[in-house]
Structures are given as structure tokens and as C-alpha cells.
Design a protein that fits this description.
It contains six helices and six strands, in the order E-H-E-E-E-H-E-H-E-H-H-H. The chain is α/β, with parallel strands linked by helices and 164 residues long. The longest helix is centred in the middle third of the chain and has 16 residues. The termini are close together.
Length: 164
């Protein structure tokens, strides 16, 4: 079986997860999305980071070109993976792949550290803005700093075993 593991990573979180998956599937081709030249694979494992409840733009554009393939996906997000936001992300990414008649063979997601530049920008927002820092939001930012952690990466390896 010809397998591609590909990813987009802004801060390194998604790349860490991609590498953990690759450790379990070392026979796969392992490339950043920007280096993928062909979609001629039996299984394409796509990873990205979350922006506005879906994949980041690079992963989104790449994924829209995958048609009638077996796919699995993974992502990192700043929110808790058990949150409503994470479930919205899953729903949106499922729809993205289903729209092009792909077969989703698995999905994995975990929390990732939030880009410090984003936190800095969010911290400047006025208190009445919907994304303004609150005590709860600051705590989530703090909690996210340690992710993906070893447990997250072990679960990524289990995901890799599952989709095979």
C-alpha cells in the first residue's frame, strides 16, 4: 500500500504529531504539504492546524484537491479537544473530504500550543470583543502551552496503527 503522510505546521505542533504518526508508518512518504507533487497514493494522511474551525489555508487548499481517495486526517488546535469547537472542526473537515467523495479512514486531533504572536494580538482586544481575553481564555492558553505532550503523541501513534 502506497501511503503519504503530509502536514502543514505553523508553530511545530502539527509537525510533532506528523512525526509520531510516521514513526508507526515508516514506509510512508513523509512530506510537508508544500512539497507534495502527486496524489497517487492508496492512503493520504493529512495534518493541519486549526484556523476558524477548519484546516489552515494551506491544508484547506491542498485537501480540496483530494478526490475519491482513502484519507485520514489529524489536526492540532488551541482549544480543548473535548470542546464544542473541536467537534465543529471535525464536522467541517469531514464535510471537506466527503464533498469530494473521499473515504475517511480515521481522524485524530489534540491540543497544541497557541502561537505567541496570536496571544499577543488577542491580548490587545477590547474587553467587549468576542475574542477578548477572559480568565477562562487565559487559562486555556496556559494549559495549551504543554501540548502536544507525550500522551498526545502516543495517542497519535495509536491512531496510525488504527488506520492501517
Amino acid at each position: 500500500m502506497k501511503i503519504l503522510i503530509t502536514y502543514s505546521s505553523k508553530t511545530g505542533n502539527t509537525e510533532k504529531v506528523a512525526k509520531a504518526i510516521f514513526e508507526e508508518i515508516p514506509s510512508a512518504d513523509f512530506l510537508p504539504i508544500s512539497e507534495v507533487k502527486s496524489l497517487d497514493y492508496d492512503l493520504i494522511i493529512v495534518g493541519g492546524w486549526i484556523d476558524r474551525a477548519t484546516f489552515d489555508n494551506n491544508t484547506l487548499v491542498f485537501s480540496k484537491n483530494i478526490m475519491k481517495k482513502n484519507v485520514a486526517y489529524f489536526f492540532t488546535l488551541g482549544a480543548n479537544p473535548n470542546s464544542a469547537h473541536a467537534l465543529d472542526c471535525v464536522k467541517n473537515i469531514d464535510a471537506l473530504f466527503n464533498e469530494n467523495e473521499n473515504t475517511i479512514t480515521g481522524k485524530y486531533f489534540c491540543q497544541g500550543a497557541i502561537d505567541p504572536k496570536l496571544i499577543s494580538w488577542l491580548s490587545t482586544l477590547p474587553s467587549d470583543h468576542k475574542m477578548a481575553p477572559s480568565e477562562e481564555r487565559r487559562q486555556r492558553w496556559e494549559d495549551a502551552k504543554s501540548h502536544p505532550d507525550l500522551e498526545d503523541l502516543e495517542r497519535a501513534k495509536e491512531f496510525a496503527k488504527f488506520i492501517l
